[in-house]
Amino acid sequence: MADPILSVKNLKVHFPIKKGFFKQTTLHVKAVDDVSFDIFPGEAVGLVGESGSGKTTIGRGILRLISPMKGDITFEGKNLLSLKGKALKNLRKDLQIIFQDPFSSLNPRMTIGNIIEEGLVIHKLADHGERQKLVMEILETVGINRDYYDRYPHEFSGGQRQRIGIARALVLKPRLVICDEPVSALDVSIQVQVLKLMQ
Predict the structure, then answer these.
(1) Model confidence pLDDT, tens digit, residues 74-110
(2) Domain ranges across the chain
(3) Do residues 95 and 174 touch, judged by C-beta distance below 8 A?
(4) Vertex 183 angle, CA 177 and 188, to 5°
(5) What CATH class has 1-86?
(6) CA distances from residue 108 to 40, 181, 184, 197 in whole angstroms, order as listed
(7) 93, 105, 131, 188: least surrounded by Cβ within 10 Å?
(8) What's the alpha-carbon Rg for the chain, to the nearest Å?
């Protein structure tokens, strides 16, 4: 059997509660407490739990968007909790997230073309002309007209904005995509379309 692409062992994410004049930590909220699982190449895994059970926190913890307090997270043999700076930045090309709320995750001052291209620029993938070509291709893949390249997020519907968020994640050709309830706020008909895109 193949090795897991992602292995999470005994993950704990506790947020401090600070009180008093000196803002001393008095308690911790246990957002995630001792979670372990493996994901293998080609496998889709769903985390099931009620609202506030820590599903989003686990996803953000894996990506180091928040700081897990304890545990081990290994992605393709690399310990994510030990990576810093450039090494962590380079790894994020292969590990992407699609957020639950597409509107708040898209910069309103940037065109959708620039939003999708941003990851390619950060990771120095291809020249400007090639990047634009890749963005146009991924726009078509997610069902957004390539003529909308220079439009802004507020000009799109919720379903279209979620497609833009998916395009932003997939344009980098990541090895693993973490989805934070990417269709929960969408109409049922749009949910089906978006899920088909992600298969």
Answers:
(1) 999 999 999 888 898 888 899 999 888 777 889 999 9
(2) 1-86, 93-199
(3) yes
(4) 145
(5) alpha beta
(6) 36, 22, 22, 24
(7) 188
(8) 18
pTM of the full structure: 0.83
Dump pLDDT digits (tens) for 100-139. Answer: 877 788 999 999 999 999 999 999 988 999 999 999 999 9
Which pair of structure tokens corresponds to residue 190?
A: 């749009």
Domain 93-199 in CATH 3.40.50.300? The answer is yes
Which tokens belong to 119? Answer: 């990851």
Domains 1-86 and 93-199 share a fold: yes
Distances (CA, A) of 26 to 68, 99, 176, 188: 19, 32, 37, 44
CB contact at 8 A, 139 and 57: no
Residue 194 pLDDT > 90, yes or no?
A: no
